[in-house]
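Late entry, evening session. Most of the bench is empty. Finally got around to the prediction I had been postponing all week. Sequence below, unchanged from the version circulated by S.P.
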Amino acid sequence: MAWRTSLECARFLRWDIPSAAELSSIPPYHITLVFRSLTSGFCLVLLWQGSNLAFSAYLAQEPLKRGQPLTQESNDPNGSLINGLKSRKQVVK
């Protein structure tokens, strides 16, 4: 049903699809298809976890300026950080 509908939509859009276009020869639940799907899913989850770990490690770093905390020279460190967050300039953020 879905293949027939997709084929008709493609013909309507005048895509060059042969009339003898057939479905894939792999059965829906063939062992190789299941294995490839599980492998792809595992790799995707591994990529997500690795990205999350790298982002968390980057986010956990404190803001430094020449190896010292960003507000080292300020009289009001918390006020300086809040002013930086309220700033409309993207360079400051």
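Two things to note before I forget:
Residues 31-59 form the longest helix (29 residues).
The longest strand covers residues 64-65.
Will write this up properly tomorrow.
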